[in-house]
């Protein structure tokens, strides 16, 4: 087999890159170790930056999102018993975010790819990368019991934190930066109406809480829990009572509870590798970086990686600008570290850490009070939340 770009991983970043390349006439094949059903079973984020929304439209995979997604002009910060509104649209010159689940994004991209006739190979668990430091990289894998070789010009590693792409880079090439947080998020998905029209991020002495949604009838709520906590220890009743205790009284009073249709605990970490490329291999999304979900940046950072590699490959294939390939990592990392900073800041001011005493709690509240009490502070929060602009490829 032969293609121009081999993409490892059929999550949203791999599918989005594949769709953009296909529409631009650049041949690509996606290989995925899991089944389509498994990929769609992942419950993930649901707040899309303006840049990702625009990319999905460019990929011609936005019809259902534009019909069913919820455009949000702002969100609420709850602390010290009160709620403060961050007017995203007003503070950023009209930019907004779209609430639309990652599972739905993946489903739409799968359907768009199937309609386009482009090739995706699922249930291929043993992908290996070869010669990607040289001029003629290729993949090998087993398909229907036979060993297959896929020759290509470039390899895009979109296969997540535990995938084979990053692990194939020789030891000593990458530098890892990591912070593991001493808590996780217990998340509940429920078919109940949202408690608020916009998301609420809450700082409380008992810990962080988040009120989110997937639609007008399906909600996603989170509470901060200890790193050692188990899902089995949290009944629905215990979860709802804990969530109510962390919200301002008027918000808690209107919270509609119901049986959880999904419940899980996600650990929090910050992680970045430098560089994000080695030879003809390029890392995208979770293969190269992870952010705590507090700033709603994980999926959106993957989209910005996709945008950068796509724009570079367009110039490579249309204009012969091969020198741009060497700039991929540096361009991506400039935006990634800024998003890492915002996610770290949101995590730091909204969560209760093991060493958070009365003084530290007051400092968190004062930090939030300062930012929301200042036009410049609100604008800083807003411009980071809606997403910093993508760097143009010149």
Rg result: 21 Å
Residue-averaged pLDDT, rounded? 95
CATH-level-4 superfamily name of the domain at 5-69 and 100-177 and 268-353: FAD/NAD(P)-binding domain
What is the CATH topology assignment of the domain at 5-69 and 100-177 and 268-353? FAD/NAD(P)-binding domain
What is the C-level CATH assignment of the domain at 5-69 and 100-177 and 268-353? Answer: Alpha Beta
What is the multimeric organization of the chains shown?
Answer: single chain
Beta-strand residue percentage: 25-35%
* pLDDT < 50 runs, ≥5 residues: none
Distance between the termini: 33 Å
For the largest beta-sheet, the strand count, sense and barrel status come to:
8 strands, mixed
Q: What's a concise summary of this model?
A:
With 394 residues, the protein is of the alpha+beta class. The chain has helices at 12-23, 36-40, 50-58, 63-68, 88-91, 102-116, 164-167, 236-245, 249-253, 298-319, 328-350, 358-372, 375-386, and strands spanning 5-8, 28-31, 47-48, 70-72, 74-79, 82-87, 97-99, 119-121, 128-130, 138-143, 146-151, 154-157, 175-190, 200-202, 209-213, 219-226, 260-274, 277-278, 281-283, 289-290.
